[in-house]
Design brief:
Layout lengths: L4 E5 L6 H11 L4 E2 L2 E3 L9 E3 L2 H9 L3 E7 L2 E6 L12 E4 L5 H7 L4 E6 L2 H11 L4 H9 L14 E5 L4 H12 L1 H5 L1
Function: Catalyzes the phosphorylation of ribose 1,5-bisphosphate to 5-phospho-D-ribosyl alpha-1-diphosphate (PRPP).
Keywords: ATP-binding, Kinase, Nucleotide-binding, Transferase
Organism: Rhodosalinus sediminis
């Protein structure tokens, strides 16, 4: 039996990494896949920072199970981060909506966890990060996109509102992903 890759998607500021950490804390054994990204390390998000050259070398060497580009950066899921799938363990991964088609082709048990929140909540969260101006935040919110049209119809999509506390969104997501847990 293979585990599920649970692709966590949503607009910037929706709290993807926070909800994923909350889910993993509540469900031991649920792995949060650490991405490789071509940007400097950040305290707010655990990832492997890589230069463009190092990313290209590793991609060419087949070190990534999935790689994509978005917003001027390169992102990838290193192969070892998803090793547990072969053993039947689920893994959470913060993915771009643009990568979902490739993820569905590569991972037959893909599930999409789409986190959502009203624009005013997203704007407040992004402003709280202090990394972007008000104009940059407005531009980021304006380019929020729906799930891609090429996502296969048989890929389950679970939509969760994360406008409240992240623990509530984590519990709702876990109940949807593991209904046997919610029933007990």
């Amino acid at each position: 039996m293979s585990g599920r890759l649970i692709a966590v998607v949503g607009p910037s500021g929706v709290g993807k990494d926070t909800v994923m950490a909350e889910m993993a804390a509540r469900r031991p054994g649920l792995h949060v896949a650490r991405r490789a990204i071509t940007r400097p390390a950040a305290a707010s998000e655990p990832f492997e920072p890589l230069s463009e050259a190092a990313f290209a070398r590793r991609e060419a060497a087949g070190d990534f199970a999935l790689a994509w580009r978005a917003h001027g950066l390169a992102y990838a899921l290193p192969v070892p981060e998803l090793a547990g799938l072969a053993e039947g363990r689920d893994a959470l991964a913060n993915l771009s909506r643009r990568a979902l088609g490739a993820a569905a082709a590569r991972f037959p048990r893909l599930v999409v966890l789409a986190l959502e929140a009203p624009a005013e909540v997203l704007a407040a969260r992004l402003a709280g990060r202090g990394r972007e101006s008000a104009d940059e935040i407005a531009a980021r919110l304006a380019r929020a996109a729906p799930l891609p049209a090429d996502l296969p119809e048989d890929v389950p999509v679970i939509r969760i509102d994360n406008s409240g506390p992240p623990g509530a969104a984590a519990e709702a997501a876990l109940a949807a992903l593991y209904p046997e847990r919610a029933a007990s």
